[in-house]
Every structure is written in C-alpha cells, then in structure tokens.
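BUG: 3D viewer hangs when loading the predicted structure for this chain

Environment: internal workstation, default settings.
Expected: structure renders.
Actual: progress bar stalls at 90%.

Input used:
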Amino acid sequence: MTKLPLRKLQALFGDKLQENVRMANYTTTRVGGPASGMISVYTVDEMRRAVKILWELDVPFRVLGSGSNLLVSDSGYRGVMVHNRCHNVRINTKGEQPVIFAESGANLGTVSRQASLRGVSGFEWANSIPGTVGGAVYGNAGAHGTDVSKCLLTAEVLTKAAGEQNLDSEGMGYMYRSSSFKRDAEEVVIMSAKFCGTKVEPALSMRLLEELTEKRRQTQPVGPSFGSTFKNPKGDYAGRLLEAAGMKGVSSGCASFSTRHANFILNDGEATAQDYYRLIRLAQKTVKEQFDVDLQLEIELLGEFEND
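Structure tokens produced before the viewer hung:
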C-alpha cells in the first residue's frame, strides 16, 4: 500500500487515526479490502481540520458516509478514509417556509423522519434511500420522481481550489444523479446542507413517508447491496434493460443480481468486491450488445480491480 506519513498523521490525529481498516465492515455490500488509514470525525470543525491537513500533506483520501455507493476493491484503498460521523439535524418551523438543516454525515432516513414528525413535508422521498446527506447532495440523489435539486436551499462545501462556499442548486450544477463536482471529479467535501419544506400536519407527512417506504419495500430486495447499481438511461430504466437482457439471478461467486429487481446486486454471504465487479462489467457488456445502451454506474469504484 502507499506509504503514508503515518508518524505525522498519528501526531496530528492521535487515537482518531486507525491503520489497515477493513472496508467490508463499513460498506452496505459488506465487501472491500483494507484502507491504509481511517480518521473518524464527529463535528464539522473536525472534518474541516482533517480535510485541510490531508490536502496540505498531499495524502489521498475519501470521505466515507454510510458506504452505500462505494465498491472498494479486495486489495483495498491506498489512502485515508475520513469517516463522517457529523450527524446533527435541526428543523426550523418558524416563518412561512420551514427549513431542514443537516450535517453531511446524517442518515437520510433519520432526517426524513425527523422532518415528518415536526410537520415538515417535502423530504419524505428520502426515507428509503440508504445513504447520508453528504452523498445525496454530492450526487443529487432522488426517488419517487424527485431529488435533492428540488429541495436544496444551500450546501456548505469545502473545495481544495476555492475554499469554503455556500451553493444553491444552480451553483451545484445539478443534473440527473450528478453535480458539477461529481462530473468534473473536483476535490470537494460536503459539510452540511439546508433543505426547504412545507408545513403540514405531522400525521399527513408520516402517512406519505410510510406509503413511499412501503412502495420501495414491495419492489426492492432485502440484503447487502448498494441500492441501485446503475443510473437510469434517459427515457428508460436500468432495471428494465437488465431484466430484458436476462441478468436477473445471474451470479459470480457469492454475488448475484436480484431476482426481484435487476438493478440490485446482492451479497449472498461471502461475496468479494471482484465478484461485484465481474457482474457490473458483464451487465454493461450484455446491455450494450443487446440494446446498444451504455449503462453508467451510480456507484464509485475505489482501488484496483482485475479485468477478466
């Protein structure tokens, strides 16, 4: 693995720095080799300090939330994972328009439920998405016909090139399941975000939340997975294409495409990251050959994979 300035990092971060941390314990697929190091941060100030130090020392790093959109190779990641444990949430119902504030490590389901319980509607769709606010803001996550771009007021971001900024949806450059930061692979960390909502009776918002959650529950499989693996192509659905291509139930090792929803890859027990990678490449190749469609990943690959 890449030789990190461990003595310097240990002096700066103390017990917050762990070495050779197995990523399978931190991803929703339950696969992934060791990261060279991991630093856990619990406040936005700690996050800011850690990120700036790592940039200054030129240490490669990734911010880790729930690990739902990340496939780490079996050989691991030659860098530092910054484990985002910043999860404060505040709901302001004063004024005409309520505002939801959440730090980037907050779980989307937690934010959604807290808003509904306070009588704030507009974020119910996020309850069933397996991720955190930071990942959702970075990738313009969405479900049930809406997404982050429709409700984001401002996102507090820290970039290596331009420092700290507060950006609205336009400033984030949102497109379907992407932002300008994601498309340009710019070095950025999402610190926190504010979302707009609408005042309603809490019971009405909770009813809608439960209805949307049940709808997802009826159509999506249970088990270790990313959630959706591929983005929907324009005018079509990745799941439909994968099912039509015969990918349902196709397996590699202990990983397999769900027989319930073809855009989900499940870990049947002892799957490896390479098992997932083989299925991803097979699916892309098969859909391209049959329908001339290039399926784009909704997830990020991290580390080195073998091309069979």
